[in-house]
């Protein structure tokens, strides 16, 4: 691995508060939590935008620094300290190492946009991509990136994860809407976009957050949809009376959209969005012909509403992309309407990803759940942080998870993901191996080891588990980060893992002799081959293999397009090393 931690400057802890227990910094945690909560309030009240950088930095410095490199052995921690970090980090602490961009220098500097031909859009006349999720969510960002459009706001107010004030865009819009609607609010907000950044293209404005029930941070669910939240479209129009609405829709086969939805989202909409959106989302989350028909109707109405709104509001343009249309036709249409090169649309839709395992069409959307099959010390933390950085912290779990039943009224302890999987699969024989394991959509480092009790379960080494997973989630994504087998062994030895894997009574799938280098190298390489074979025999799954190096960042950039600094953060490097 070409990471060089020595090059890194000091930075601030990201989310592994539990590591602090090891350094007995309980007090610091308390301070950290207070500061984090304080900061979160600051973020949420929207008033921090004029604060000096120094002030923000001071608050950051107060946050405890994570010094522990890796906690393989799940601790019987009090959940209070173990898990409070994660939510605040989404908004307040996402800074992740200030210097790794040097290693990733091949990416264009987003702050200095190259001159583009005269475009029909800019900061004052921006594009709003307003669509239901899972309609080419990866295609659209690729398209603008290919065309060299630099100022793109995608999910976050600030694309750069090292920005201290980064928050989800939808949350920012929702906060502003609430202040504007609240007559007794003491916070002056005059625009729905206030404090949300300034971009030429905005996308991924829908925001959903599960309830928080960890430690001292208890909060109800949140949801915001810019099209369905009462009054939001009008406010958007008021903020930008000259804008282009881009919609992305399956006009011929809306059923394909329905088929591609992750299993959890219907419940999210019903439970977490309907209360604040006038019950605009369908109420049934069951699978039946009549429920399907309701979703298709909902889908079509969503786009109809946008179309009519744009028609009736002078100054707003509407560009409607039909995902079911021949890409050549759409490419021409977009060239006329947005003045962006034809090749970009075609490439974004039809371009391939090539890795050591072969080549395949790049996915148009992320197929959840994403199961990260990398073994410890092979990029599991890097993968988790990559997705958290692109999609929001709650979406990606690493090693530990808050059970789905945990609520602010009835908070439950975090459990090792592996323990939940083992119980579901081995004991309860549930069809859904992730049943009740929490709300995450990306699952990383899902094995667990408690040498003291002889307990151990690494699901991906268990053939039966992978088959059960594939059966219930036939369209899932397998994400596999790979490194050199020798480096991996060195790293696991430093953390005394091979001995514990070999000796733990229940540990199935690992070599018996912890000292035989060749056996462990073969084991590691065979494991990669097994994962590849599994992926190849499950054609409906998406398989993404990535080297744990800076090449990995470029490969992922072409697929997901999250900010390059999301890959190989300092924190993740320390854990994976
Ligand atoms: C931030 O500063 C700008 C000008 O410097 C001012 O117009 C704006 O009202 C300020 N916003 C807040 C929230 O204090
Ligand atoms: C309205 O604003 C006031 C003052 O900030 C606050 O106390 C109250 O809870 C808000 N009401 C709602 C419904 O959000
Ligand atoms: C893959 O998915 C398609 C469409 O959902 C389905 O018709 C097909 O049977 C699936 N193939 C396999 C091997 O499961």
Structure explained in plain terms:
This protein is α/β, with parallel strands linked by helices and 577 residues long. The strands form seven sheets. The protein has a five-stranded parallel beta sheet with strand order 2-3-1-8-9, with helices on both faces. Strands 13-16-12-19-20 form a five-stranded parallel beta sheet, with helices on both faces. Strands 4-7 form a two-stranded antiparallel ribbon. The longest helix is centred in the middle third of the chain and has 24 residues, at 289-312. The radius of gyration is 23 Å and the shape is globular. The site of one 2-acetamido-2-deoxy-beta-D-glucopyranose has 3 residues, from loops. One 2-acetamido-2-deoxy-beta-D-glucopyranose is lined by residues 47, 49-50.
The coarse silhouette is globular
* Number of strand elements: 20
- The N- and C-terminal alpha carbons lie at a distance of 8 Å
The unique ligands bound to this protein are: 2-acetamido-2-deoxy-beta-D-glucopyranose
**Mean of residue pLDDT values:** 82
Q: What count of domains describes the coordinates? A: 2
Give the helix proportion (percent range).
25-40%
Strand count, sense and closure of the main sheet?
A: 5 strands, parallel
Radius of gyration over alpha carbons? 23 Å
Strand composition percent: 5-15%
């Amino acid at each position: 691995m070409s990471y060089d931690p020595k090059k890194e400057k000091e930075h601030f802890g990201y989310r592994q508060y539990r590591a602090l227990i090891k350094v007995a910094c309980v007090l610091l945690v308390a301070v950290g939590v207070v500061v984090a909560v304080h900061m979160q309030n600051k973020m949420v009240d929207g008033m921090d935008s004029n604060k000096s950088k120094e002030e923000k930095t001071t608050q950051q410095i107060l946050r405890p620094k994570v010094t522990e490199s890796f906690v393989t052995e799940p601790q019987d921690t009090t959940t209070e300290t173990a898990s409070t970090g994660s939510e605040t980090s989404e908004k307040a602490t996402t800074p992740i190492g200030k210097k790794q961009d040097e290693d990733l220098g091949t990416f264009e500097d987003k702050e200095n946009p190259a001159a583009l031909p005269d475009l029909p859009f800019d900061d004052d006349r921006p594009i709003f991509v307003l669509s239901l999720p899972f309609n080419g969510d990866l295609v659209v960002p690729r398209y603008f990136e290919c065309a060299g459009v630099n100022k793109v706001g995608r999910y976050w107010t600030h694309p750069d994860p090292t920005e201290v004030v980064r928050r989800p865009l939808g949350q920012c819009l929702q906060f502003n809407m609430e202040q504007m609607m609240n007559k007794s609010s003491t916070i002056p907000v005059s625009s729905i976009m206030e404090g949300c950044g300034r971009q030429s293209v905005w996308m991924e404005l829908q925001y959903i957050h599960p309830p928080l029930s960890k430690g001292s941070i208890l909060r109800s669910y949140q949801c915001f949809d810019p099209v369905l939240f009462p009054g939001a479209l009008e406010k958007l129009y008021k903020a930008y009376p000259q804008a282009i609405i881009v919609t992305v829709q399956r006009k011929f086969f809306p059923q394909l959209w329905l088929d591609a939805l992750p299993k959890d989202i219907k419940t999210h909409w019903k439970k977490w969005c309907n209360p604040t959106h006038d019950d605009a989302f369908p109420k049934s989350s069951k699978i039946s012909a009549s429920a399907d028909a309701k979703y298709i109707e909902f889908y079509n109405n969503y786009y109809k509403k946008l179309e009519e709104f744009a028609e009736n509001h002078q100054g707003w343009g509407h560009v409607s992309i039909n995902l079911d249309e021949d890409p050549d036709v759409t490419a021409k249409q977009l060239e006329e309407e947005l003045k962006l090169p034809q090749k970009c649309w075609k490439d974004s839709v039809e371009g391939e990803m090539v890795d050591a395992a072969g080549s395949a069409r790049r996915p148009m959307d992320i197929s959840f759940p994403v199961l990260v099959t990398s073994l410890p010390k092979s990029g599991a933390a890097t993968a988790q942080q990559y997705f958290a950085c692109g999609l929001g912290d709650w979406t990606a779990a690493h090693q530990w998870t808050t059970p789905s039943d945990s609520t602010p009224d009835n908070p439950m302890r975090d459990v090792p993901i592996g323990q939940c999987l083992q119980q579901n699969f081995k004991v309860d024989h549930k069809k859904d191996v992730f049943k009740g394991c929490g709300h995450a959509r990306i699952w990383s480092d899902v094995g667990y080891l408690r040498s003291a009790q002889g307990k151990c379960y690494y699901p991906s080494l268990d053939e039966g588990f992978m088959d059960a997973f594939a059966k219930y989630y036939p369209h899932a994504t397998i994400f596999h980060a790979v490194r050199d087998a020798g480096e991996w062994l060195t790293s696991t030895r430093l953390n005394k893992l091979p001995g514990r894997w070999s000796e733990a009574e229940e540990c199935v799938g690992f070599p018996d002799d912890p000292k035989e280098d060749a056996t462990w190298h073969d084991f590691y390489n065979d494991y990669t081959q097994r994962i590849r074979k599994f992926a190849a025999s499950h054609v409906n799954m998406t398989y993404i293999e990535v080297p744990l190096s800076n090449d990995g960042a470029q490969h992922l950039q072409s697929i997901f397009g999250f900010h390059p600094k999301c890959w190989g953060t300092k924190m993740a490097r320390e854990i994976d090393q």
